Amino acid sequence: MNDEREYQKRVLIATSLSYVIVILDTSIVNVALEPVAASLGSDISGLQWVVNAYTLTFASLLLSGGALGDRIGAKTVYLAGLLVFACASALCGLAPDWQILVVARVLQGVGAALLVPCSLTLINHAFPVARQRASAIGVWAGCGGIAMAAGPLAGGLLIHLLGWRSIFLVNVPIALIGAWLTTRVDSVRPASSDRPMDVAGQLLAIVALGASVAVLIEGAKLGWQAGAIRVGAAIALAAWAAFVLVEARRKQPMLPLGFFRSPVFSASAFVSLISGLIFYGLFFLLSLYFQSARGWSPLRTGLAFLPLTVMVTIGSFVSGALNRTYGAHRLVCAGFLLYALGFAGLVALADDAPYWRIALCFPAVGFAAGVISPAATAALMSAVDKARAGVGAGVLNASRQTGSAFGVAIFGALMSAIQPLDVGIRVAVYLAIGLALLAALVWSVALAVVTRYAGSDVC
């Protein structure tokens, strides 16, 4: 028993460390937007690409990352992801212009897509009991919450002391330590070593997501009626349609559409997407607002986010206990209602309100983000066969990262296209409220169906 617990502890430490650097690089870059723009000559759309090149690649490749882990072994793919992430972070720190920085961020996304789903696979195998697994996932997500909380402040301090390049270079030693720790974790037997890779599905997913986000980012700059935007929209729609058709016809698809017959699985993926969209979208908007509209330094911006990010950490760590006490049904619904409440208070941004009025809304938004992610993760993983855990984890994280990429694109477009600024902010906040309430409704209906007709321990 003690040996099993020691092994579980090693797995949890190694996997949590990887999640820390993945989330750190999602949040830390937001406080560097103004310094990057000033140093590399980027406009708002360029900054959107700096943020989204990472999240978009991450989302596009997560399904293949999970499937690759199932095919050749989660530990092997996990280690490869860490090493790719370390090399890409070094390139980010040395980038001479914003275009090279975008390319390096793409490579970071490749590394993250390899390691994150495989980290959940390692956890899934190390913790076979559902309650233990839910607690472990809560710790894993909680470490991500710590990274989220530390990201803006750590980024502000690093930029203040060493410049914006240091926020990327700091990932290199952390990733290498994570790789060393992973060598002490036992290998997980591949679940499907003879399963062919779905190359067509992967390429279509990349085109569909990339074209969709490109249309949203560039539409505000080029005009929504521009020929290039119309062509991009047509390509995105065609790629999405072809992706669904290919996945429906393949015997072993990258994204098994049969997963979505489960209301728990479908609802978990949907609420993860919406949570990522509204949280990271507004995080990007607020970062630009504090630095551009109010003229705050990266350090002051990082400090301003503390009431938000600290509550993400707290919410992540208590989510497991709240899930066991109240069930995922009530917990996720309550989380999205908290989202809506917090966002309603952020309407004050449009009136150039004092900071304390804005900060009062941050705890509700942060706590909601913290509790939703691990609750939805545990619910989705309970609906997936262990043999397909990598693919299931890939779907979950792809949903979240896709939401993040769309959020940055949508809210950045609103900030660019709708003037004056206070009107754009109001539209963004009202959109976030509407999406939060929609997610609560979808989750409630889906879990009610499961409880009524089949019964489920996630409710």
From TrEMBL:
<keyword id="KW-0812">Transmembrane</keyword>
<feature type="transmembrane region" description="Helical">
    <location>
        <begin position="402"/>
        <end position="421"/>
    </location>
</feature>
<feature type="transmembrane region" description="Helical">
    <location>
        <begin position="197"/>
        <end position="217"/>
    </location>
</feature>
<protein>
    <submittedName>
        <fullName>Multidrug resistance protein Stp</fullName>
    </submittedName>
</protein>
<feature type="transmembrane region" description="Helical">
    <location>
        <begin position="427"/>
        <end position="450"/>
    </location>
</feature>
<feature type="transmembrane region" description="Helical">
    <location>
        <begin position="135"/>
        <end position="161"/>
    </location>
</feature>
<feature type="transmembrane region" description="Helical">
    <location>
        <begin position="12"/>
        <end position="33"/>
    </location>
</feature>
<feature type="transmembrane region" description="Helical">
    <location>
        <begin position="102"/>
        <end position="123"/>
    </location>
</feature>
<feature type="transmembrane region" description="Helical">
    <location>
        <begin position="356"/>
        <end position="381"/>
    </location>
</feature>
<feature type="domain" description="Major facilitator superfamily (MFS) profile">
    <location>
        <begin position="11"/>
        <end position="452"/>
    </location>
</feature>
<keyword id="KW-1003">Cell membrane</keyword>
<dbReference type="InterPro" id="IPR020846">
    <property type="entry name" value="MFS_dom"/>
</dbReference>
<keyword id="KW-1133">Transmembrane helix</keyword>
<dbReference type="Pfam" id="PF07690">
    <property type="entry name" value="MFS_1"/>
</dbReference>
<comment type="similarity">
    <text>Belongs to the major facilitator superfamily. EmrB family.</text>
</comment>
<feature type="transmembrane region" description="Helical">
    <location>
        <begin position="331"/>
        <end position="350"/>
    </location>
</feature>
<keyword id="KW-0813">Transport</keyword>
<dbReference type="InterPro" id="IPR036259">
    <property type="entry name" value="MFS_trans_sf"/>
</dbReference>
<feature type="transmembrane region" description="Helical">
    <location>
        <begin position="223"/>
        <end position="246"/>
    </location>
</feature>
<feature type="transmembrane region" description="Helical">
    <location>
        <begin position="302"/>
        <end position="322"/>
    </location>
</feature>
<feature type="transmembrane region" description="Helical">
    <location>
        <begin position="267"/>
        <end position="290"/>
    </location>
</feature>
<feature type="transmembrane region" description="Helical">
    <location>
        <begin position="53"/>
        <end position="69"/>
    </location>
</feature>
<dbReference type="InterPro" id="IPR011701">
    <property type="entry name" value="MFS"/>
</dbReference>
<feature type="transmembrane region" description="Helical">
    <location>
        <begin position="76"/>
        <end position="96"/>
    </location>
</feature>
<dbReference type="InterPro" id="IPR004638">
    <property type="entry name" value="EmrB-like"/>
</dbReference>
<feature type="transmembrane region" description="Helical">
    <location>
        <begin position="167"/>
        <end position="185"/>
    </location>
</feature>
<keyword id="KW-0472">Membrane</keyword>
